[in-house]
Amino acid sequence: MFKGVLINKDDAGYRAAVQEIDESSLPEGDVCVSVEWSTLNYKDGLAVTGKSPVVRRFPMVPGIDFAGTVTESRHPNWQVGDKVVLNGWGVGETHWGGLAQKARVRGDWLVPLPKAFSARQAMAIGTAGYTAMLCVLALERHGIKPAGGEILVTGANGGVGSVAIALLAKLGYEVVASTGRASEEAHLKALGASAIIDRSELSSPGKPLGKERWAGVVDAVGSHTLANACATTKYRGAVAACGLAQGMDFPSSVAPFILRGVTLYGIDSVMAPLPVRLEAWERLGRDLDIARLDAIVREIGLGEAVAVAADLLDGKVRGRVVVDVNR
Length: 327
Prior knowledge:
Radius of gyration: 20 Å
Oligomer: single chain
Helix content: 25-40%
CATH superfamily of the largest domain: Medium-chain alcohol dehydrogenases, catalytic domain
Shape: globular
Structural class: alpha/beta
């Protein structure tokens, strides 16, 4: 038996709670992992609360990330004792995830825990930080350099936004953070933001084109915020879109793309191939300031995960939440 958050949906309704789970219930896979740390992302909040149809099978253990140690393996790449990390691949949605003490998954989904990080630090990064790195890589490949001008980061107090600010600042970019929480200005500047703007400047319907300002954008919000970010990006600039906190709609026009040559990059972290994942984690080990990361981390036990997931959706959580699944 092991402990985990289990989501059920039946005639009694939708509910999530920490339960004792029999190991025989674990799904199919060729690698078993003793999970040490997991985390809470926005998608986990949606899954745990049921506010969006994230979970596709029931019962389900949520948690799109975990870090731990291999205990059994029939996969050629993994041996007992290996330290591993998992991000995405539908885990926590269609396959049991990381908010539990044990997991059984496909070995192809795993990456080695980078030597630069402990299991806890890897989960402080999690899918949010790994996605932030994918966004930064997209801007770099587009040719955007620190001398090119300001980089806008939306949803700045969230996991993606926080790590993106820290990464970009260390790489020498001038970062402008968009947030709805003015009280967090000192925190965002400590991460490396040079200026703060209120999210209301971007979150309402805007014009097809606005005054050029951003050399590049990391957007975790979507909807009008993404549309306005594109409309105010400089000629031949780039926008990396990875989230939908405001909504899945994109009320924009073709104007930024055909009149200014703006490029919109869609960032998919869930199904990204192994070479992309390995590059992102290698760069995180090199470019992320661990001291800054520690400043945005809140640690909780497994028993707190359900309540904190609801707080995350309500905008009451800043930065990253790591979950010690063994307490």
